[in-house]
Amino acid sequence: MSGYSVFAQYYDELTRNVRYAERAEYFLALLKRLEHAPGLTLDLACGTGSLTLELFCRGVDIYGVDASVAMLSQAREKCMNVGADILFLCQKMQSIDLYGTVDTVICSLDSINHLKDEQEVQQVFSKVSFFMNPGGVFLFDLNTLYKHEMVLGNNVFVYDMENVYCVWQNHYVPASARVDIHLDFFERNGKLYSRSSEHFSERTYPLEKISACLEKAGFSSISIFDEMSFESPKNDSQRVVFAAEKKR
Q: What pTM was estimated for this model as a whole?
């Protein structure tokens, strides 16, 4: 995966439809439903820190980790602009090395899909488990096979924004349920445009495989919900949310 040096500049504008405030409220409601107080919380693969900041503003003791320096630079600036003193660490989620244990880990917006294979998924789950207190809760979402096949697929999306024109091209690889993504950014510079590109892939996994990886990493009481709800996933769910408890 790329370092997102260009993507980071426009990530927030491209994800304006995410509704981070509602997503923060959902995760807090889910934790309440699980009868788990957030405690010290890690926002894993936090990107530009939008969800981190929303949770911080709701009283959560939280910090963020991401592998992209460019993304974290945006996150840090965003938080400084509103006087939020939030710690951000630059680490790959496959090899996080935290200062101590945490009570809750949240990993949102397809971050697990960016892992290249099941081995990396297992590495992440094992690392999260290692740095989580017994009884801690791990919440994360996952794009589904339906979304990769029917929504992302081999489609092209165009975003005509104020400062940049973005062409998003997908190539779906059925054998691995992987979508290879190519982004071309055309940034306005007077009467001219400068072009830059980013490349990355997202892969999805059967839900039962994800559950098996969680169990192997020491998690139990695994629940799966349709995105932004407490209902079971449907055949056409585009994203699901996993909730798992670290064994006591």
A: 0.94
